[in-house]
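Appendix B, example 12.
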Amino acid sequence: MVHAFFVGRALASLASEQAEQAFTNALSTLGRFDAEQRENLRRFAEEVMERAQQEEVAAMQNRREPSTPGGPAPVGQPQDLQATIDTLRAEIAQVRSTLQQYRASLN
């Protein structure tokens, strides 16, 4: 009878240790997974920002210079603010017109 008590006690102790170890391993794995996902998300956000910067720089370099006198001045040259506004309005009107033509061609 005494032997059965000690066997049961050893069994409970060992089962408790193994359950604790399994729980610790599961939490460790979950923590590692969480850290990896956070790192992947951080890298993804950095890559998005990097590509956006590259595209912005490329767009600025590829920006066409209009032949109209009211067009944007090259960098470093002063320009009349009203002329810039007028140029932007003209470009917006052109884009709207092109968009309307595109929408009409879809119908």
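Residues 2-62 form the longest helix (61 residues). Residues 2-64+81-106 form one domain.
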